[in-house]
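Sorry, can you check?
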Amino acid sequence: MEELLIHHISDYSTLVLLVIIAITLYTLSKGADILVDEAVSLSVHWGVPKMIIGATIVSLGTTLPEATVSVMAAVNGNPDLALGNAVGSIICDTSLIIGISSLLGELKVDPFTIRRQGKLQLGAGLLLILASMPFLGGYVSQFAGFVFLALLATYLIMSLHWSKGSTESDEEIEEEESSVFIQVTKMIAGIILIILSSKVLIPTVEITAIRVGVPQSIIAATLVAFGTSLPELVTAISSVRKGHGELAIGNIVGADILNVLFVVGASASVTRGGLLVPNEFYTLQFPVMAVALLVFRYLSTRKANMISKVGGSVLLLIYVGYLIMNYL
């Protein structure tokens, strides 16, 4: 089926391919949006605190596009696309999305989340860089992928444990009035939409990248990464406008952790040769990711417990500079 799809897509003009990319990116974000909405409603129904919703359940939903695209890319023999998508998404989430959100409204920081999940966010990013170092072979090995997945399970268990000690109220989040069966059905529909969209997106991006002469890793770290980060962007903007800045921060922190442990971990674990790290990652992608995470860490741990518009503007400038360096 995939070969037949690639055969048909290859006959289309570049303009048509760009239209297909735009449509599939939209359906990816729409599917994740449906999944997130129903997951939030279910979590409220089951009494899970808002803080944990953002850093775990919502993040799992919004990270599904990255995971689906990256795993399928790795299976299809395109590890640079898989790794580029994950790293690009971390940069996009931490700099662009936080930057935009801070300019649109009050972006409060939950000290409890930052004290625990925040450290894991920075640690996960640094762990990915360490696992990718040339002295370890210059690739994220399959073994490292399994280690990441084990750490993912540990992270989810720890988050569940932390939620039991939380006294935060979730009264501000409205629970959907439909039955649990309908909510679960909508979640499944969202997952199906995400998977089908990613199956169309990957070969379309590959063919377009070849035609315009841009390396797949660069395309993955910009266009695809931004497209698959749309759920985080929409969730963050909606959260800030409704006065739930902590939910937006929790979503981004959790998404960054999952991009390493879930996306990279799952992608590396399905390939015997692991994920090869292109040379430009050592000179651009990893340094920018580290800078974005460190700046965010500094801004989020200040006594004001809020990311100011000035701080958000700094993060936004980091992403603009990253885009300029990519295309130069």
In short: The mean pLDDT is 82. Residues 180-212 form the longest helix (33 residues). The chain is about 80% helix and 0% strand. The chain has one domain: 2-327.
